[in-house]
Design brief:
alpha+beta
Length: about 140
Amino acid sequence: MPAPLKKQLTASLQSGFVLKRSVFQPCLELYPMEEWDLMMKKINKLNRFVKKNNDFIRRFTAGVKVVEVDALGRLLVPKDLVTFASISKDVVFSSAVNIVEIWDKDLYEKSISGEDMDFADLAEEVMGNINDDEDGIS
């Protein structure tokens, strides 16, 4: 784990992390335990007698592993998760607000290249309606 990232996650090092498959991308998601607990509170509100909810919970939690960062800043990624994310040699740790994505470098570069989307259109669609500042400027 890069030293600056490890430093930012100092408060979470004692509690540990959860490592899982990403829902939308061929990468892994590293949740500080505190964030994982918040996510599980949301998921636990789902009615398990609704088939779609049950299917979602099963898929969302598939391959979940509790992991720790050792004193040298190393994180052991289980082989099944390495295979899922197609991690070969170089790895990218990418901040995703409250979690960290772990990517194979080539797949990460491809995902951010923008070849398959117009980022300006995406930004407008996702963020264009948010206006929480009192002065009307986002």
